[in-house]
């Protein structure tokens, strides 16, 4: 079955960086890419960007450009999301989601989420 | 960016009720609209794509309709497992954007 397994919770200080991993299994990793979405405590969903797992192309919203980098390792079927210059309002659960089955822009299968806490 | 607005933000209903949630886009998105269900402490789950197509494994009591700028998610007969928060998402253009969510509560 399709599974996305993310790395564990992180606690970071303001100004630091965090790198979250997302290991996929149960489908062809190079189809449809991986999206990253975050959810601040008690808040809604916010799309952070997409990476093609076929050729590494990325699409980031303006809000995160220059501060986020998404990469993949096709040898281990793992996607990564690095967020730099962390602030307290980056405290959130970060999710990876695959577009497998329905297309790159649909979030068909989700990881379990990674809580990133930014606190001094 | 395309803004997505959901209403209501909270909905109180009883088991067996028929409920509807509205999602409006700030510009036309044709039928490039998805709905997700999220329960507390869990990742969202895709329910509907292309405005009215049911995702694999999703109960037929969920249905979607609409096109252009106005969309509706309907639950035909609310079940205990349906009490959750629902989000719409447009995928017409990047950046992908979500509505603010509708929490369906027990009345």
| Topology of chain A as a string of helices (H) and strands (E) | EEEEEEEEEEE
Beta-strand content estimate of chain B: over 45%
Tally of DSSP β-strands of chain B: 11
Low-confidence sequence ranges of chain B: none
Explain briefly what this protein structure is.
Chain A is mainly β and 120 residues long. Helices cover 0% and strands 46% of the residues of chain A.
How would you describe this structure to a colleague?
The complex is a heterodimer of chains A (120) and B (107). With 120 residues, chain A is mainly beta. Chain A starts with a strand and ends with a strand. Chain A has strands spanning 3-6, 10-12, 18-25, 34-39, 46-51, 58-59, 68-73, 78-83, 92-98, 109-110, 114-118. In chain A, strands 2, 4, 5, 6, 9, 10 and 11 form a 7-stranded mixed β-sheet that branches. In chain A, strands 1-3-8-7 form a 4-stranded antiparallel β-sheet, with no helix packed on it. Chain B is mainly β and 107 residues long.
Any key phrases for this structure?
heterodimer; A: mainly beta; 11 strands; 0% helix; 46% strand; B: 107 residues; mainly beta; seven-stranded mixed β-sheet; four-stranded antiparallel β-sheet; globular
